Structure to design on (209 residues):
């Protein structure tokens, strides 16, 4: 099979399938691509089932509104494909939320990968949460080399409550899941591609999974 990704670095190595970034019209793919390039990698942005299924790693970014984004996934059949993937998959921001069971945003049914429902922040806090906040209770190799209470960049109005899938926590008047993991699926509510050196380390850790 022809190699789909040009890896300009050998550390960490990727196989012939390379790195796929899912394109469904709701992802901030350029920021992700720039962050990967700074690490020495170039991924292929695609909605092609065969390329995604054969990739060594998959990134599922997302910005925008949940129900509209899910509709775009359904139109391309990616809502069926994504939960079946066997390689490491990283959902970012809305991508992570869509990997949950359900979201209050637009009363949207998610992909059901993570066993948690996404809810809106209360009126007691400023919405959206926008800016830097700390992550702690880190429980995954995804956070290798990341100290407790490092700052990550977040922009969101909805959140995933703490659950059995929680691997990192943030407090915004209340604690919530800032990262989730189930089997080969990872999700982060923050934007690692916009979170400086430590965000870059998390992306590198994912490529090493």
């Amino acid at each position: 099979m022809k190699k789909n990704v040009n890896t300009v670095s050998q550390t960490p190595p990727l196989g012939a399938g390379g790195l796929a970034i899912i394109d469904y019209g709701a992802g901030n793919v350029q920021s992700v691509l720039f962050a990967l390039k700074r690490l020495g990698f170039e991924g292929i942005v695609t909605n092609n089932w065969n390329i995604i299924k054969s990739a060594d790693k998959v990134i599922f970014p997302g910005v925008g509104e949940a129900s509209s984004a899910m509709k775009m996934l359904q139109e391309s059949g990616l809502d069926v494909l994504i939960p079946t993937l066997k390689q490491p998959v990283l959902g970012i921001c809305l991508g992570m939320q869509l990997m949950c069971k359900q979201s209050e945003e637009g009363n949207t049914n998610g992909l059901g990968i993570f066993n948690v429902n996404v809810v809106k922040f209360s009126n007691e806090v400023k919405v959206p949460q926008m800016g830097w906040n700390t992550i702690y209770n880190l429980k995954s190799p995804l956070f290798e080399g990341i100290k407790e209470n490092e700052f990550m960049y977040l922009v969101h109005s909805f959140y995933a409550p703490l659950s059995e899938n929680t691997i990192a926590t943030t407090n915004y008047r209340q604690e919530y899941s800032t990262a989730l993991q189930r089997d080969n699926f990872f999700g982060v509510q923050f934007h690692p591609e916009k979170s400086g050196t430590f965000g870059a380390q998390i992306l590198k850790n994912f490529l090493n999974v």
Notes: The chain has six helices and 13 strands. The helical segments are 29-38, 49-54, 66-76, 78-81, 94-98, 196-208. Residues 1-13 have pLDDT under 50 and may be disordered.
